[in-house]
Amino acid sequence: MNEVEKLYETLRKIQEPKGYYFNNDKEKVFELLQGLLVNKDRYGYMSCPCRLASGDREKDKDIICPCAYRDDDIREYGSCYCNLYVSKEWNEGKIPHVLVPERRPPEKFI
User: Fold this and answer.
1) Which of 28, 39, 40 is nearest to 84 (CA)?
2) CA atoms of 28 and 13, how far apart (whole Å)
């Protein structure tokens, strides 16, 4: 089992009991998990691969996966910003798959 597969299994076991599921598109999920691992090597923490991290853990704490916006995104849209985490209903196609808007405040952008 490679590092991405290990991360997948670890996070799945932690997040599914909380009602957060990985997107059914496993290829996309593995690409995002690889991005998390790259950012962990680069910055020392797993910042969201869909956002630009500053390299300052304190400034980026809102985008360390799972990000501070995930819960609201999933509650409102059924998916987080990058579509890594989704609701069961989203995976089952019971709710529309729409573009999730960026919730991170502009002043947090680099």
Assistant:
1) 28
2) 19
Instruction: Tell me, rounded to whole angstroms, the distance of Cα 69 from its chain centroid.
Output: 9
Alpha helices (runs of H) in the chain, residue ranges in sequence order: 3-15, 26-43, 57-60, 70-77, 88-91
pLDDT digits (tens, 9 = 90+) for 53-103: 999 999 999 999 999 999 999 999 999 999 999 999 999 999 999 999 999
State CA 22 to chain mean position distance: 9
Contact 46, 4 (CB under 8 A): no
Identity of the residue numbered 103: R
| Contact criterion met (CB below 8 Å) for 36 and 46 | yes
Angle at 54 between CA 51 and CA 60, to 5 degrees: 70
Question: Model pTM?
Answer: 0.94
d(CA 11, CA 78): 18
